[in-house]
C-alpha cells in the first residue's frame, strides 16, 4: 500500500498541472457549448446536443490517451531506474492509468453537472435530477469507452516497443499487420450469435434508448456503447486482458 501511495504521489507531482488544465479546458468548452445550444435550439433538444457530446467524447478520449502516453514517454529515457526500484514497472503503469482515469472521471462529472444545471437554468422543462442523471449516464459511457481504448492502444504500443528493440523500424510494419489482423478477427467474433446474446444481457439504465440516441455514431467501442451488464462484463474482461498483457510486455521492454 505504501508503494502504491508513493507512486500515486509521484505521478500527481509530475502531472498535476496538465491534469488540472485538462479539466478546466473541458469544463469551459462544455459550458460554452451548452450556452450556445440553449439560445437557438431545434425542437428536438436531445438530438441537437449530439455534436456537443461527440466533441466531449473525442476531447476526453484524446486527452486521456495523450496524457497516458506522454507520461510513459517520460519514463522511456530512464527505464534502468525501475530495475533497481522496490516498485515494479507494472505498478508504475497501474498508477499512471489510475490517476488519469480518475481525472477523466472527475472531468466528466463536472461537465455533466455544468450541462445539467445550465440546461435547467435556461429551460427548466426537465427536472434537474433527470437532466443530471442523463448527462452523467452519458459520462459513464464515455469513460468506459475511453478506458477500453486506452487499454487497446497501450497493448499495441507495448508490443511495438518490444518488437522495436529487436527489429528496429521494421516493427512498424509488423504492428500495422497485427492491428489489421486484430480488426478482422474481432469483426468475425463480433457477429457470432453467442457474443450478441452476451451484449444484450441486462440493460443497466432501464430504457436505454435516450442514452443510445445521444451516443449514436460517437462510439469507438465496436457497434455500440457499454450500456448492458453483459457488455460491461465483456469489455471489462477485455480491458483487463489488454492492459495486463500490455504491462507485461512493457516490463519485458524494460528488461531487454
Distance between the termini: 28 Å
Domain unit count: 1
Along the chain, the helix and strand elements come as HHHHHHHHH
Silhouette: globular
What's the tally of helices? 9
Counting helices, strands and paired strands, the structural category is mainly alpha
Return residue spans where pLDDT drops below 50 for at least 5 consecutive residues: 216-223
The count of strands amounts to 0
Evaluate the radius of gyration: 20 Å
DSSP strand content: under 5%
Tags for this model:
single chain; 256 residues; mainly alpha; 9 helices; globular
Description:
With 256 residues, this protein is mostly helical. It has one domain. The chain is built from 9 helices and no strands. The chain has helices at residues 2-39, 45-48, 50-76, 89-122, 128-167, 170-190, 193-199, 209-214, 229-255. α4 (89-122) runs antiparallel to α9. The two termini are 28 Å apart. The model is unreliable at 216-223 (pLDDT under 50).
What's this model, at a glance?
With 256 residues, this protein is mainly alpha-helical. It has nine helices and no strands. Helix 1 packs parallel to helix 4, helix 3 runs antiparallel to helix 4 and helix 5 (128-167) runs parallel beside helix 9 (229-255).
